[in-house]
Amino acid sequence: MRRPSVLALITAALLLGTGTATAAAACDETTDPLDRVRDAAVVVTAVALPGPTAPDGGALVGPAAFRVERYDKGGAGDRIRVATNVVALAGGGFAAVPEQIGPLPGERWRLQLVRAPGGVLASTVCLGSAVLGVASPAPRVRVGGRTVRARRSNWLGLPASGRPATITRSAAVRLRATRVLAVGLVRGRRIVRTGRVRAGVWAAPPGVRRGDRLLLDTGDAFYGLTVR
Cα torsion at 195, 201, 206, 209 (round to 10°)? Predict the structure, then answer.
């Protein structure tokens, strides 16, 4: 069954000023974290700036301003406006949008976003945005008797600067000493395979080529390794 457009769900919620159980349920098919990355137009680490909050002192009223620290996919300037789970109504008062994020001023977020009407960016439970805590250490992998530390990368497994960390082709990649939610195989500018980590091991799919990249998602950052 084809998944409903994430942007369509967000647009409907913003226009109605309310969330629906149907919209949330429609997201259930997206279970792999890297599927959410492929759906997102923008993946960014950003800090929520001060602004109006809900009457009970809760989340920022949307669209809320964020200061960008780093883009891992796409781009939208040094500051972005992001829809939240509270909207102000034209006639006064507020309405809840439950499937949107609920940032507080000063929180640091990893945001996986789509472009919504009016130049606003938005996320839902479908896209996996989350508040960041203590950063996970860089993943280490063991392949062919050699341990390699992955390098911080963008969503395609490419480091921001310098040479990539490399590994040899192998049937299994063992992940050590860190949390890794999912691993993807990147070829060119596409994630061509995804898979979850099972008992610390990721089984490489057949047909891995020299120059392919492994993309490791720790939930707060991407890390990459290039196959040689």
Answer: 90
Average pLDDT, integer, range 140-157? 86
CATH code for the domain of 36? 2.40.50
CA distance 45 to 82: 13
Reported pTM: 0.80
- Statement to judge: residues 124 and 155 lie in one domain: no
Least Cα distance to 44 among 61, 10, 14, 67 occurs for 67
Q: Pick the range with the lowest mean pLDDT from 14-28, 98-112, 169-183, 197-211.
A: 14-28
Sign of the dihedral defined by the CA atoms of residues 84, 223, 219, 32, in that order? positive
Does residue 172 contact residue 203 with C-beta atoms inside 8 Å? Answer: yes
Phi and psi, residue 24, nearest 5°: -65, -40
Of 96, 131, 166, the last residue of a domain is 131
pLDDT for residue 61 is more than 80: yes
Q: Amino acid letter at 39?
A: D
**Half-sphere exposure of 109 toward its Cβ, with a 13 Å CA cutoff?**
31
Within the chain, residue ranges assigned H as helices are 6-16, 21-25, 33-39
Q: Are 54 and 64 in contact (CB under 8 A)?
A: no
CB 20 within 8 A of CB 126: no
Q: Which domain holds residue 171?
A: 140-227
Quote the tokens at residue 128.
């996996």
Q: Which of 64, 46, 135 is nearest to 100 (CA)?
A: 64
Neighbour tally for 117: CB within 10 Å: 12
